[in-house]
């Protein structure tokens, strides 16, 4: 099991390709996307790191910092970055953690607490549970966890969509329906009474059922 939504993301110190960080300090007042991959020089992850590098401006617009993780050392990350740039057209433009002591992988319950030894002797199959996405808010709470199998590449457009929803619903007392995208109608949260809703939405709302109150996306 990975950490549940709503818990505080474990803090840690780690070496990265951009120097040593203390995770909570590094996040600061931003949002953060921590994503892990089981091994450097693996095919699916090569495409993912390149895709994320190309999409970084979209995450920047949303105030989301990106950080990757592998149990391999950072000198291998640097060599892998050359391959990523050559094959994907963009090298990682965000830090990658070298989790060689498995500390972060254990803190985030991606590897068993008993894991030890030389990370370079481990195969991708040994690390296949290190294939997670954590979205963390400025309050340092985990907002979303996704766990992918090794054979399925991550959909970063979906992750951007989720971030849009998380940021909107953190600011306004609304929820987003299935397949919602930026600019579409939303649902008034169940915690908002009808009397409160009349104050917040004096123009009213559509109500196909008493428990489904639909309004335009708040600005």
Note the topology.
Elements: E1 13-16, E2 19-22, H1 23-27, E3 31-36, H2 43-61, E4 64-70, H3 74-88, E5 96-98, H4 103-107, E6 132-136, E7 142-147, H5 156-171, E8 174-175, E9 186-188, H6 194-200, E10 206-209, E11 212-215
Parallel strand pairs: 3-4, 4-5
Antiparallel strand pairs: 1-2, 3-6, 6-7, 8-9, 9-11, 10-11
Helix pairs in contact: 2-3
GO molecular function, one term: peroxiredoxin activity
Active site: 45
Pfam family, one: 1-cysPrx_C
Question: What's a concise summary of this model?
Answer:
The chain has 219 residues and is α+β, with helices and mostly antiparallel strands.
Descriptors:
oxidoreductase; 22% strand; elongated; Peroxiredoxin_C; 219 residues; Antioxidant, Horf6, Chain A, domain 2; alpha+beta; Thioredoxin-like_sf; 11 strands; redox-active center
